[in-house]
Amino acid sequence: MAIHLYNTLTRQKELFKPIEEGKVRMYVCGPTVYNYIHIGNARPPIVFDVVRRYFEYRGYEVNYVSNFTDVDDKIIKAANELGETAPEIANKFIAAYHEDVKALGVMEATCHPRVTENIQEIIDFVSALIEKGYAYEAEGDVYFKTREFEGYGKLSHQSVDELRSGARIEVGEKKQNPLDFALWKAAKPGEPYWESPWGPGRPGWHIECSAMAQKYLGDTIDIHAGGRDLAFPHHENEVAQSEALTGKTFANYWLHNGYININNEKMSKSLGNFVLVHDMIKNQDPEVIRFFMLSVHYRNPINFSDELLESAKTGLERIKATFENLHHRLANSADLSEDIDSWKETLANYKKRFITEMDDDFNTANAISILFELTKEANLYLQEPNSSKEILELFIQTFEEIASVLGLDLMEEKELLDGEIEQLIEERNEARKSRNFARADEIRDLLKEKNIILEDTPQGVRWKRK
Ligand SMILES: Nc1ncnc2c1ncn2[C@@H]1O[C@H](COP(=O)(O)OP(=O)(O)OP(=O)(O)O)[C@@H](O)[C@H]1O
Ligand SMILES: [Zn+2]
């Protein structure tokens, strides 16, 4: 087998054939940085991080580019509301994004380009589209001429007629055709702007990804990815811009993740039904959130609930407990080498099955089932009175190999979460009130061991990390 992936463009699973032998050029649309990310926004960075890790595991070198949209209406609005500048807002939420996705086990991208650092490339791209007859200027705006691009609609599988019936020309837009979209927007008073051949203005949303993908990865890339809502219009417009300019295929494979829903509705900022990662990880181990996301295939929807999260937590704890037990037993095991060949085969078989599942459009849900089976197998082995060092090591290695592709650290020494600390302090207060000083001291010692310092103040107990 080799890696197969489901391509939105062809609506089929296809064999992965890289442009360049042994290399993957991958572009994942990143966030608009005007707020903290919610659990839904965290799905693309997590699932495509696993796609990247899996390619690396299979020996590919991955050039992974993920942008930041750091100039946009929403950012300007947030800046005005908070009395800060747009770059201040963008910088603050870029830092928050890095912090949140790092906690979720996401590897740094090879490159994280920002729109504001690529304005010249965008202007050049737009100028070239005008020169080729694919775009036109109208009173300081520039629009893409969709009817000039023959394949318009091919990615989202819609005909131009269907699309036209749903499109409108909004007030203030100067486009000739409802399906045309802005490549460049003339500056309105009080907005950030850059000088351009069409006067002061800023880029439209779609052009940034075409320009940055080309700059950092070349005219044709292997994989382009993002959430399902990006397929239309964002990715459709990217295809139009890039292919109109170069005459080449823009991306060979298009991957789209399904939604995280709440009560079967897409989690989104506009609906207000979201949970921020930033808040959630105060009380929940971020690795549990990652494990929870990966326990469903990336293209399927997930109906988010506390019960599902709780069951992911229990599952992950079960795997970790077994992994720890293997280590513990290793310290007290002899060098018995009976049966080693048959164990080698058994464990190699787990790896093989893991690869088969991941080769099949990155089926992390089935990969996790295999990890549970491996846990069961290890528990059975641990019940035997004697254990061989070599076999324990084989088990550990198999666990580690699978877990590292999924981005899980089974050995990690956990820090206490804010919520857990507060709960312990509360319990200590109660213990003191009921004169159970032994328990109160025990909690104080436990917190001390975890580097939490308590300070008694007239307002109550305060805590900080050492
Ligand atoms: N509920 C969700 N489930 C899965 N992916 C999502 C969800 N909501 C947004 N995404 C994805 O998150 C990424 C970041 O998107 P972006 O910062 O533009 O947020 P957004 O789509 O504006 O969010 P919202 O819909 O909450 O306004 C995109 O790839 C988008 O498809
Ligand atoms: Zn994009």
Written description of the protein model:
Its EC number is 6.1.1.16. One of its GO terms (molecular function) is cysteine-tRNA ligase activity. It is an enzyme of class 6 (ligase). The protein is α/β, with parallel strands linked by helices and 466 residues long. It has 15 helices and 15 strands. The strands form five sheets. A four-stranded parallel beta sheet has the order 4-3-9-10, with helices on both faces. Strand 9, helix 7 and strand 10 form a beta-alpha-beta unit. Helix 6 packs across helix 7. The longest helix has 26 residues. The radius of gyration is 26 Å and the shape is globular. The relative contact order is 0.11. The model has no long low-confidence stretch (mean pLDDT 94). The chain binds adenosine-5'-triphosphate and zinc ion (ZN). Adenosine-5'-triphosphate binds next to helix 1 and strand 9.
The CATH top-level class label of the largest domain: Alpha Beta
**Largest β-sheet summary:** 4 strands, parallel
> CATH H level of the largest domain: which superfamily?
HUPs
Indicate the low-confidence ranges by residue numbers. none
Distinctive features:
Four Helix Bundle (Hemerythrin (Met), subunit A), binds zinc ion, 466 residues, globular, 15 strands, single chain, alpha/beta, binds adenosine-5'-triphosphate, Rossmann fold, 4-stranded antiparallel sheet, 15% strand
Structural topology:
Layout: E1 4-7, E2 12-15, E3 23-28, H1 43-57, E4 61-66, H2 73-82, H3 86-103, H4 119-131, E5 135-138, E6 141-144, H5 160-166, E7 181-186, E8 201-203, H6 205-217, E9 221-227, H7 231-246, E10 251-257, E11 260-262, E12 265-266, H8 277-283, H9 286-294, E13 302-303, H10 306-331, H11 340-359, H12 364-383, H13 389-406, H14 418-433, H15 437-449, E14 452-457, E15 460-465
Parallel strand pairs: 3-4, 3-9, 9-10, 11-13
Antiparallel strand pairs: 1-2, 5-6, 6-7, 7-8, 11-12, 14-15
Helix pairs in contact: 2-3, 4-6, 6-7, 9-10, 10-12, 10-13, 11-12, 11-13, 12-13, 14-15
The chain binds adenosine-5'-triphosphate and zinc ion (ZN).
The site of zinc ion (ZN) has 3 residues, from loops.
